[in-house]
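Hey, can you fold this one?
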Amino acid sequence: MMNTKFYNIGFIGLGIMGKVFTERLVAKGHSVIGYDLDSSKVQAASAWGVRAGNSPADVTNKSDIVMICVTSTDSVEDVVFGTNGVVNSTNPGSFLIDFSTTIVASTKKMAELLKDQIGMGWIDAPVSGGPDACREGTLAIMVGGSKNDIKNARPLIEQFSKKFTVFGDVGSGQVAKMVNQVLVLNNYVVLAEALALAEAGGIDASKIPEALASGHAGSNMLRDIFPRMISRDFAPKGYARQVLKDLDMVYDFAKHLKSPTPMSTQAASLFRMFNAKGHEELDAIAIMKLFDQKDKI
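Sure. Predicted structure:
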């Protein structure tokens, strides 16, 4: 059930996803103060009603709940524990929600340290679905944290997802996100390979999603991403560099667990090659360029 309570929300990280998160929060009636290392993104966010914060500590001081969406574990650590970080706030809220994709062990350590230093709880809530799903409130969100924090955060998280799944204590959301990345990021490569084969075979590839929808190959990725690959729409809804970072994270996590990930290792090799050619700022689905006989990358 949707809660009609409005919050003062501090949002740190105003990139592709942070932009849409804050747009939706403002549209839902919340007061949002934002911060990003790139001051131009902070300035741009004023267009949809986000007030400018001077630092993570400043944002935290002026909000009831802090949300983070940045690109790496190191960035999260800097936001929380760096100079003028969340931990330096004089008026911390009861918990923060981190939508970033981060290293499981680091997430647990940071959460424990933040709790010890200022009594602030931590919810790891990595997401899947991209900016379009965030805009529509249909993200898949994988959540880890204390039962009490999650209970209090539920009305807000539900505004981004029709259904989110709690996997356990802090860090468990990131474990689920690693599973998600194995499924999604390998499929980028599989879809590209399939499209290249269809085009080389001389058939109308645009018919593939509908033709296979009711079979085992049908999926929302085939429905949504395959047509973008066909049209070579590689405008970023995420970045190829982030995909490689996540695949390397999967490898390290799986190695620690002694769980084999040969497919993900191969996908990482392809994205490493792709990024080395200077395409790291394209959308991850641009991996199609490696398979495209007409593309001279």
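The first helix runs from residue 16 to 27. Let me know if you want another pass with a different chain boundary.
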